[in-house]
Design goal:
- By secondary structure, the chain is an alpha/beta fold.
- The chain has a five-stranded parallel sheet, sandwiched between helices. It has a two-stranded parallel ribbon with strand order 6-7.
- It has helices spanning 8-12, 27-43, 61-68, 89-102, 118-121, 124-132, 146-156, 163-173, 177-190, 198-206, 213-221, 225-237, 242-264, 269-272, 279-288, 291-308, 316-327, and strands at 19-24, 48-53, 77-82, 107-113, 134-138, 160-161, 195-196.
- The termini are far apart.
- It folds into three domains: 5-138, Rossmann fold, CATH 3.40.50; 146-206, Helicase, Ruva Protein, domain 3, CATH 1.10.8.60; 213-325, Zinc Finger, Delta Prime, domain 3.
- Helix 3 (61-68) runs parallel beside helix 4 (89-102), helix 8 packs across helix 9 and helix 9 (177-190) packs across helix 10 (198-206).
- The mean pLDDT is 87.
Length: 333
């Protein structure tokens, strides 16, 4: 079963399925889908939850062992498996197919993984899980959809906004849904009559953190390693969460790969990068970083994600520093 994220809550109200695959590269929307599934599970008596991080060399026997063990105080169990690279391998594929056969009313699997490509969607393990449960594919919100998405989030927060105000915020966050969500939370405190005017939005944007993730990205693309590192330290000092910084870096790396591939197929840079001031930054980064280097940076980004989630014994900010230096054209120490 394929369930669009916007229909997930309605589907959960009808009862839990034995298996949920949440796939996508948009952290906020993936997190919200998982939160909805966890909340529904708690409501329906799943008092026990076990979290497994399926990193490299993960023992997939743990999944089946977990399925066979139940706490003395719990009758229903939710097993959450995070698969950062989206590829379980032969042993994982077999274990997931075996799990699909035993999942049921008292045992639910929540599998969280990045965007599935076509070959993964056609794999035996995905088909086995999809046949027993549901696949929720989370797609990024593009620039054209962003104002509408912001308006919906404002309404959900009990706010309304002038069209110009919505456009200001859309341009400010540049597709970063986590940043947009945080700005909306701040606006709830600033609004006196629940209507956000363009002036209120401009003031709120102007009062945002002096060091922002977009400034970090621009400095890295411009090969200003010293400035990028200073901005990274500033973000950490101002309390910006590591997942927000990682999202911005990984998004830019993926974007560079996609843009570079399209340029190789004859598409002009001006059509691919609509914001004119960013065109020379992107062009310089593509001249400096080869596709293989960018793919290597994505692997590092996944390692940082694992560190953030507790799956690796590493300070995530050290990994973010390495990513920033490498994107700037410097080797990490």
């Amino acid at each position: 079963m394929r369930i669009p994220p916007r229909q997930l809550s309605q589907n959960l109200n009808k009862g839990l399925l034995p298996i949920y695959l949440v796939s996508g590269d948009e952290p906020l929307l993936v997190q919200e889908c998982c939160d909805s599934i966890r909340a529904a599970a708690r409501t329906q008596g799943f008092s026990e939850r076990e979290l497994l991080h399926a990193e490299n060399n993960f023992d997939w026997g743990q999944l089946l062992a977990s399925a066979g063990s139940m706490s003395l105080f719990a009758e229903k169990k939710l097993i959450e498996v995070r698969l950062p690279n989206g590829k379980p391998g032969d042993k994982g594929s077999k274990a997931l197919q075996e799990f699909a056969a035993v999942a049921g009313d008292d045992l639910v699997l929540l599998l969280v993984l990045p965007k599935l490509d076509r070959s993964q969607q056609n794999s035996k393990w995905v088909k086995a899980l999809d046949q027993k449960g549901a696949l929720i594919q989370v797609w990024p919100v593009d620039a054209q959809e962003m104002p509408r998405w912001i308006h919906q989030r404002l309404r959900a927060a009990g706010l309304d906004a002038e069209p110009e105000a919505i456009q200001i915020l859309a341009e400010r966050v540049e597709g970063n849904l986590l940043a947009a969500s945080q700005e909306i939370e701040k606006l709830k405190l600033l609004s006196a009559d629940n209507l956000i005017t363009a002036a209120t939005m401009s003031d709120a944007v102007a009062s945002s953190a002096r060091y922002d993730v977009f400034g970090l990205i621009d400095k890295a693309l411009a090969a200003d390693a010293d400035g990028a590192v200073k901005t990274l330290h500033g973000l950490r000092a101002e309390g910006v969460e590591a997942p927000v910084v990682l999202w911005a870096l990984a998004r830019e790396i993926r974007s560079l790969l996609e843009i570079g591939e399209k340029i190789d197929h004859g598409q002009p840079l001006a059509r691919l990068v609509r914001i004119q001031k960013r065109q020379p930054l992107v062009q310089a980064a593509l001249a400096r970083l080869r596709p293989r280097q960018l793919e290597g940076l994505l692997l590092r980004a996944r390692a940082v994600d694992a560190a953030i989630k507790g799956g690796r014994d590493q300070d995530p900010w050290v990994g973010l520093l390495e990513l920033t230096l490498n994107l700037s054209g410097r080797r990490s120490v």
